[in-house]
Amino acid sequence: MTDTPAGEGRGIHVSGTFTGNAQTGDNSTAEYVSHAGGAVGAVESAEIVQLREAVEALRARIRDLGPDELSAAEGTAAESALAEVEDALPSTDEAGQGRVRNAIFTVSGALASVASLGESLRALREAAAPWF
């Protein structure tokens, strides 16, 4: 990838298959929203609701950070891991639980150096405790 000065044309060229998100632009942001369809009238357990709330709270804190506090690579890794947590819920099988555990490890590692996120990370790990 090459750096293009602000204001000049940017583009993404994909040859073959592409899965995921891509964006270009100066100081651009993206928001991932997942609206999982479940059984009508299905009620999620208190543990799942608590974990979803912790994920959203951490995501909001990440969005508030400046580039001097969190690198783009760390932010992208954390956002991907948080999306993985949401995608794995409300699965109760071993594979789903493993996905949640791996995503928690990934987001914790990506954000470990950001002191201002300590409380949010602690809340996320506590909410994910039933999956460990």
Structure report:
With about 130 residues, the chain is mostly helical. About 50% of the residues lie in helices and about 0% in strands. It has four helices and no strands. Helix 1 (about 45-65) runs antiparallel to helix 2 (about 70-90) and helix 1 runs antiparallel to helix 4 (about 120-125). The longest helix has 19 residues, at about 45-65.
Top keywords for this entry?
globular, 132 residues
Cα(first) to Cα(last) distance is 39 Å
Low-confidence stretches: none
Rg from Cα: 17 Å
The beta-strand count equals 0
What's the mean pLDDT score? 76
Note the overall shape. Answer: globular
Helix share of residues?
A: 40-55%
Structural class: mainly alpha
**H/E topology pattern:** HHHH
What is the count of helical runs?
4
Provide the β-strand percentage band.
under 5%
User: Can you summarize the main beta sheet?
Assistant: none
A few lines on this structure:
With 132 residues, the protein is mostly helical. Helices cover 48% and strands 0% of the residues.
Write the layout of secondary structure elements.
Blueprint: H1 46-64, H2 72-88, H3 94-111, H4 118-127
